[in-house]
Design goal:
Layout lengths: L3 H10 L4 H8 L8 H12 L4 E6 L7 H21 L3 E5 L10 H17 L4 E3 L7 H13 L5 E6 L5 H12 L4 E5 L14 H17 L3 E5 L3 H13 L24 E6 L4 H9 L4 E7 L3 H11 L2 H11 L7
Parallel strand pairs: 1-2, 1-8, 2-3, 3-4, 4-5, 5-6, 6-7, 7-8
Helix pairs in contact: 1-12, 4-5, 7-8, 8-9
The protein binds dihydroflavine-adenine dinucleotide (FDA).
């Protein structure tokens, strides 16, 4: 249940002047332009991080907007390639028009994934709310069918269906599966999803185990100590870790710009000390870097969808020792 305090923070934030929201969100969003994301990648490369880039946007209403995202992401590929960054892309299939014109949307995604493939670059399909879970998984499977294996999905630990999805995807593409697993940011209904903190942690941990056991590549996207600690134990019990090749019999080929079967992923500006500690221990750590002109609309929409983010941001702001960038 979302607390009163969280709702108050959201209520206050949406009444704040734009400059104030910009000032607070500076930490979580690289800036309005691609050059801002490039600057952040230069800075964080020195901390041993690799990256995934997200062009911010709202749900689109015309295919012209889909074309904008396609062209902007193509610029991102070129910038990553020109700067030789250790980085890949995170895209939202709906931003490419999947819900407006599924055929054209698929063409757009294929065009981007093909270009990324030519640059040996991976494309992650971010997962939006439960209305598009099936479609997003299907997009990934269709790309694999077309021979484009540089694509993987995000699955959300809080959804009841996720263990079944892992089995389904393992049946279809075996060790070519490449996941990001997270708790899931959308507050989904209790009929289809865990809604309390502890069950969400346990369900997410169970998904991490199932993914590791399936031989897939696993990006663990969490800043939460119980999830990260569970992962470290799960890796150790499978003989996996930073100083050894992936020992799993059922894992796929070694992947370019990837860790030994797994990596940790964190959001820009969140729990930097935890990320740096993992990185110093030798684990591959990836920072999710959002940028774009739509930073304001995006930030406000995410807050409204999940008011607990407002509490986390307010806590980081008022009690900085709990969450340094
Ligand atoms: P938890 O919410 O308990 O956070 C632990 C601590 O981390 C908090 O107490 C706070 O200090 C800090 N923190 C976490 N999130 C913060 C934030 N936004 N701002 C400030 N502080 C924060 N979800 C989804 O549905 N689809 C997706 O595609 C993705 N993609 C994705 C990529 C990456 C790299 C990450 C790290 C996360 C996602 N998520 C996501 C979001 C994810 O599902 C989840 O909502 C958040 O990561 C928060 O969950 P934690 O496991 O970090 O725990």
């Amino acid at each position: 249940m979302v607390g009163l305090f969280s709702r108050m923070v959201v209520g206050m934030t949406i009444r704040m002047p734009r400059w104030f929201v910009s000032w607070v969100s500076r930490r979580y969003v690289a800036g309005p332009e691609l050059k801002d994301a490039v600057k952040v990648m230069h800075r964080l490369s020195k901390e041993g991080a690799c990256f995934t880039i997200d062009v911010l946007g709202e749900e689109i209403t015309s295919m012209d907007e889909a074309t904008f995202f396609l062209e902007e992401y193509k610029r991102v590929i070129t910038a990553i390639s020109d700067n030789k960054f250790d980085a890949n892309l995170s895209i939202k299939p709906t931003a490419f028009g999947l819900l407006l014109d599924s055929e054209k949307g698929m063409d757009n995604i294929e065009s981007l994934v093909s270009m990324a493939n030519e640059h040996d670059m991976f494309v992650r399909l971010d997962m939006e709310d439960h209305r598009v879970t099936d479609d997003t998984i299907q997009v990934m499977l269709d790309m694999h069918d077309k021979g484009l294996k540089n694509v993987g999905v995000v699955l959300q630990g809080r959804l009841f269906r996720t263990l079944e999805d892992i089995r389904y995807i393992a049946d279809k593409i075996g060790p070519n599966a490449d996941y990001r697993i997270c708790k899931g940011i959308y507050l989904e209904p209790s009929e289809i999803s865990h809604t309390e903190r502890q069950p969400i942690i346990e369900a997410t941990s169970a998904c991490i185990d199932a993914m590791l056991d399936s031989g897939a590549y696993v990006g663990i996207a969490s800043h939460d100590h119980p999830v990260v600690n569970h992962t470290l134990k799960a890796l150790e019990s499978r003989g996996m870790g930073p100083s050894t090749d992936d020992p799993r019999d059922n894992s796929g080929a070694v992947r370019k710009q990837k860790g030994p079967g797994y990596e940790f992923q964190m959001l820009l500006g969140v729990r930097g000390p935890m990320r740096r500690k993992l990185s110093n221990q030798g684990h591959r750590t990836r920072v999710y870097i959002p940028y774009g002109e739509m930073w304001y609309e995006y930030s406000i929409r995410r807050l409204q969808e999940n008011p607990t983010i407002g509490t986390q941001v307010a806590k980081a702001f008022l009690m900085p020792w709990t969450n340094r960038p």
